[in-house]
Design a protein that fits this description.
mainly alpha; 3 helices; 2 strands; 77% helix; 4% strand; elongated
Amino acid sequence: MIIKKFNAMSVAKVSGLLYGILGLILGAFVALMTLVGSGTAAMAAKSGKPLMGRLIGVGAVVALPLFYGGLGFVMGYLIAVLYNWVAQMAGGLQVEVEDNPASDSI
């Protein structure tokens, strides 16, 4: 089997979703670290003003998935278009596929 072309919009959607999930995980990590850091700083200074840390943490959970998802969508689209262009010249990507006889009995 030879893959000669990808639907660029399909690749963009899947890539955007995967990178959005990655951004959510990264945003949660940034939020956790920011909250821990602001809480520690507030305890050390004895003046409870951890509001900025909380805002940055919540902002990371919202902004990073949107940023990563959007960038993943655009890059997935561009990579698929670039692959389609190169595959026309190179003949595509050869893939070996095997049927699974156990899945036919279900």
